[in-house]
Every structure is written in structure tokens, then in C-alpha cells.
Amino acid sequence: MIGIDRDKRRLYRRVWDQVRNRAAINQQPNTSALNDCLNKPRRNRIRVLIVVTNADLAGAPSHVRDLVMNLRHQVEVAVAFGQSGPIKTALESEGIRTYLITGMQSQISVRTDLAVIQRLLNIVKESQPDFIHAHSAKAGMVARIVGLLHGTPVLYTVHGWGFGPGRRMTQSVIVWMVELLLAPFAARYIMVSRADEKAARRKLLIRKSRITVIHNGVPDAGLRADVEANSGIVMVARVDRSKDHEMALHAFSKVQTTMRLQLIGSGTDEPTFVTKAMVWAQSAKDRIDFVGESTTVRKHLAANAVFLLASKYEGLPLSIIEAMGAGLPVVATNVGGVNELIDQDCHGYLIPTGDIDKLSAALQRLVDQGSLRRRLGEAARERYEACFRLDTMCEQVLAVYTSMSTRSGMDSRHGGQTVND
User: Fold this and answer.
1) ∠ at Cα 367 (275, 328), nearest 5°?
2) pLDDT digit string (tens) for 301-341?
3) Does residue 404 sit in helix, strand or coil?
4) Which of 41, 106, 263, 356 is deepest in the core (most CB within 10 A)?
5) C-alpha dihedral (236, 58, 63, 73), degrees to nearest 10
């Protein structure tokens, strides 16, 4: 604790005292906090403070943007970000109140994290939400500590746990220990996949009654790929440890085709990555387009014939759902909740992690057979319409919001109907 000023020492002791007290009473509800909730003034709309680590075009921030834009007329919402970026800017342009919490990044740092906790605590005191809705691991950690300190319930959406196969061992163990310690301090959890629910129950001992599984949904862009006429493969994935561009490029180099491979996502046009990719792609290096981050991903999807995603670990990838919405057949590694999106030989192909030969063979089948691409792509589109539309997801999230606000005694209304206690 050397170098931490007196205020931060006091905050640290306060957090630790709350944790010890909560453990001492076997994780029973804080009745004084509950009474505070019951005594809050009644309002016509649920008031939610959403907290998310990043503001780039990655999965969790994009999920938050779509959720906020869909529910803003039913729910009074503000969003706290750990960084500036296109998602924060887009919400501000639509009149959504946002906050910036500098330092709320993935890395763990005692000094920085204590300052972040204090900043979020001040935001909660100012905005007085009925509950906090956290997205992603770091935001989930900070929000649960602040909720404990302030007596505000926390809803935590898990977009894939930060521990488990594919992660660095040391990081995985640390994240698991932090999640285990903080697991009792969220009132409810939303899991974006059944795989995440299974991990929560087995590894963190979270009761099933506190978990709701809500699959991600994305808006329909109204763009469809002509997969028989198109002649390209596209992979939408930022350069990140979770994504396996090396596997994808090695597999693509073995495919006998004139089709090009588009790599879209943050970092895919940076010189360091391009140099590595050219080596991985070997003889296919002249058939790769390094696009970088794009705000027109849906147009790129509609212009291609096959969607590819090679990953070491995942939650429930929005990129696959967007590809399904465009009517593309999908080839993806079978990690996280991917097999909850894709049925083998029905919507595409599921590949074991690291199996370059199987990935190459699946791509070869699809580039060779336009009719197969059409059949799998049409099935993928039908599954998107049935299961992964944005309005379906938002209705389910709103039901959780309503349940939480009812528990806190708020006279909440949405769509003109009153939710009774």
C-alpha cells in the first residue's frame, strides 16, 4: 500500500470492512441498504446507470449502444465508460448522458482501481440510479464494490468470463479469485450464453436463481449477401489475444481458391500485425485485404460469400450473429457460446481450436460449392430471425430491469403499464 494517499487508504479499508461484514453474516442481504431502496422517491421510469469498460466498436460496447438506443424511451439511462471512443460519442450525439471514468481499464492496479472506485461512487451519488448495470469484467468488478459501498443493487452482464481455457494461466487464476470474492455482491447476473452460466455455477458457485441467460441480439441491417455470386471470405475480429488470426491465415493458405480474405477489426491494418500476417499466410499473402476498424461492417458482410472466425475463447460473438443476419454460412472455432449460435452442418461448421487442417477443409468445401453456401446461409438467416434479433434481447433485458425495480419497491412503468410490487 506504499504510495497510496490517506483518502485511498480509507476507501480501501471501507471496501475490506464491507466484504468482511458481508461474509460474517453468510452473505445475507444488507437490510439497511434494502430499506434505503424502499424509501427512495417513486418515479415513473426505471433509472439505470450502465457501466462498461471500453467505448470502441468491440462486442460489449456495441451491445451497450444497441441496448441503450432500444430502451431509452422506456428507461432513464446514463452510461459510464472507461475510455472515450466511437460508442461514447454516438450515444452523446443522441442525447444520452455519459460519464468518463479515466483509468477503468482491464489491467489491475491498486492505486488506479481505488481512484476508479471513488469516481464511480461519486457518479452513483450524483445520478441516484435504482441499480447499476455493469458490462465486462473490469466494470463488473468496480460496480460490485461501489454497489456494496453505496447500497445500490448491481446487475452484471457477463460477456464471457475472464478465466478459463485459452487465457494466460496467471491472469486466469487472478481473475477467477477476484470473481469468486465478488460473486455474492451482484443482485442478478445476465449471461450471454449457457456456457457462461455453466462456468458461473460450477466455478463461482453462483445460484441458478440469480442468473438469467439472454443471448445477444443485433439489429437487422437489411443487407443480404448473394453467397453464390460473391467471391470472398471475411473475418471480423480485432487483433487481440482472444482472436486466432494465426490459425485463420495458416488455414486460408491451404485453400485452393482465387477468393480473397478480408480482415476487419481494430489493429488489422497496423504494420506490426500486417508483417506477421504475411508470414502466416505464406503463398496466399497477395489475396488478403487488411481493412482495419470499420463502421461499415454490415456492407462488407453483404459483399462476401463466407464468414470466418477463429478464436481461442469467446462469449457469444456479435460478429457471428451479424454474419448470420446477412445470410452468410459461418466457419468458427468451437469455443464459449459459439455452438449455441451454429449447429454443425446446418448453419456452418464448428472447428476444434487449433485444428488448422479441419478449418482449411471446411473453407475448401464452401468455396467449391455455391449451392452449399446458399443452403447454410439461408438456414443461418432463419436462425437469426428466430433467436437473435435485437428486439427479442431488449425485451428480455427489460423484463430483468422490471424485476429488479419491483424488488426495490419502485413504482415502475413501461409501455404504459404499471409493475406492481
Assistant:
1) 90
2) 999 999 999 999 999 999 999 999 999 999 999 999 999 99
3) helix
4) 263
5) -120
